[in-house]
Amino acid sequence: MMKKIPVFLLTLSCFSLFGQTNWQTYFEQSGGKKTPRYPETVTYCLQLAGASPKIHYTTFGVSPQGRDLPLLIIDRDGLTTPEAIKATGRIILLVEACIHPGESEGKDAGLMLARDLIAPPLDPLPRKEEGRGKKEEEKGEREEDQRIGYSAPASENKIENRQSKIENLLDHVSLLFIPIFNVDGHERFGPYNRINQNGPEEMGWRVTATNLNLNRDFLKADAPEMKAWLTMYNRWDPDFFIDIHTTDGADYQYVLTYMMETRGNMDAGLTTWCDSVFLPVWTDEMELAGYPVFPYIEFRRWHDPKSGLIRDVAPPMLSQGYVALRNRPGLLVETHMLKPYKQRVEATYHCLISTLGILNDQWHQLKTLCADADAFVQSESFRSQPFPLLFDLSRTDSVMVGFRGVEYEAVYSELTGGLWYQYSDSPVTFPVPLFEKVEPVKTVTLPEAYIIPVEWKEVIDRAAWHGISMIRLPRDSAIRVTSYRFSNPRWQTNPYEGRHPLTRVVSDTFSEVRIFPAGSVIIPVGQPSARVIAHLLEPNGNGSLLFWGFFDPVFEQKEYSEFYVMEPMAKKMLDEDPLLREEFETKMASDSTFATSQWQIMNWFLERSPYGDKRRMVYPVGRINN
Ligand SMILES: [Zn+2]
């Protein structure tokens, strides 16, 4: 099921592109109501590539159903490799759309931007003069034109300047654009894929053909699409990343909300740059364009903004959380599902133009900060600091902020007996507490290196896919390591992303000399991916390979004693070891479940006998220190 575009069609398209009409994207031709399917998207990309040497169409992998994963490379000199582009000094911006294909704004905005970067815009997108769109009417029809709310300030509009000088935006930045990441999910196309969403008329489905959510897969990389993405990312090493989504949740005025990892899980220099340079300029420019932005938030009470806003740290399974671990800023944008599709795409277009413009101004600072961040994680001082694996959000420490919401009321449901929130079309700015104070709650001191035994191939493969450098042991070697020993593991009952995550485990450490077979890999922490290494291999994070179940077999007991063997052996053990007797009697007195389980008692003695499995519950990955 390879989706190839015939060459003759491409040639015809290239000729027609120079006519007036075909410059319009599918979205524009539909009046902002429709989004193209995969073949139309690829055809338009090929048309652009055929029309300008600045745009190169390529692919970065093949989906399980056989579709190529499309990638546009947009460079002012028509360069097509990371080596050639980096040699010019330009930085690289990666824009990703349709990781959740039902949320297709990024595809349509990105295709318009790619077109405008090689030719003057057809009609510069107007700044939005009025606010949010009216919600769905009772008949079920979507209103596209009524807008209420705030007005853009009448001062100079930097975004319009950026748009009018669009060809200059590529002076110091080259753009990688993935119009559709989840290509198989995208082609599960229909009108009923996003129940809460106001257009387009039809759209793709959230997850892959095997029902995996790619935006939970950045660390465990179970989907072939993610393996391809990581290979592409390692090769290009982009300096800035944008991932484009549509939200669900409560109603409010903002057309676009965003997430950036500036909460302690990214390099300090990059965090300062995001907080004090990028976000203030970008926020101003979006406001001037008529699209005031706000951090992506959840609510203390679901759907009830006045209950308080919650802004947490993204785990590394999410896109912008992952690139933060790679020492690169990631901007995740969420347009608001109740706004008309056309408005959402235009807001996304402005977001892309603004970001490109800021990066074009800031390219040197960003490039220097990325290099500094890569260097810092390779230093002794990085490893001497406690590394945060998990953060906790304070639910008591808040600041008051003005939130541009809408009037709403809680309505009693006769159907369910519960309350639901009915939003009106009346905009209102109200003060609400914002809970965003986070503290690391699980930290670890990183070792000099980790070692993964050769037999854990799936784990070694994952490390390689993340671009992590490793050294293979040429022969069997005795190496002193610190090992984790686990107890009391608990797993999630229902599957999550095709796995049953380990929700709780107690861990302790001990030092030992272990024989590691030839082919085992040593992974030095001192490399640019240090943060990814820590999250993959430290067991107690919320995205570690242990959490995802890659090491589940080590928790299993594989040998059992028969009672007729264990009974006399246990009595002999008690007679010969008074300390053991004391431990046993304490256990019997304090643990009633244990005291009434013949199986548990016999197993307790087996574990303490020479026949007990000394490797059970020991983490196969070792930590190597000086
Ligand atoms: Zn999404």
CATH-derived architecture of the largest domain: 3-Layer(aba) Sandwich
CATH superfamily of the largest domain: Zn peptidases
Ends distance: 53 Å
Q: What value does the Rg take, in angstroms?
A: 28 Å
Largest sheet: 8 strands, mixed
The backbone outline, from C-alpha atoms, is: globular
Uncertain residue segments: 1-21, 130-155
**Overall pLDDT confidence:** 91
List the ions, cofactors and other small molecules found in this model: zinc ion
CATH topology name of the largest domain, in short, is: Aminopeptidase
Q: In which range does the helix fraction lie?
A: 25-40%
The portion of residues forming beta strands comes to 15-25%
Total number of strands: 22
Number of helices: 18
Give me the secondary-structure topology:
Elements: H1 7-17, H2 26-29, H3 38-51, E1 55-62, E2 68-74, H4 82-87, E3 91-96, H5 105-118, E4 132-133, E5 147-148, H6 158-164, E6 173-178, H7 183-186, H8 224-236, E7 240-246, E8 256-259, H9 268-288, E9 293-295, E10 298-301, E11 304-310, H10 319-325, E12 330-335, H11 341-376, H12 380-384, E13 387-393, E14 399-412, E15 419-435, E16 438-444, E17 449-452, H13 457-465, E18 471-472, E19 477-491, E20 502-516, E21 521-524, H14 530-537, H15 563-576, H16 578-590, H17 592-595, H18 598-608, E22 622-624
Parallel strand pairs: 3-6, 3-7, 7-12, 8-9, 11-15
Antiparallel strand pairs: 1-2, 2-6, 4-5, 8-12, 10-11, 13-16, 14-15, 17-21, 17-22, 18-21, 19-20
Bound molecules: zinc ion (ZN).
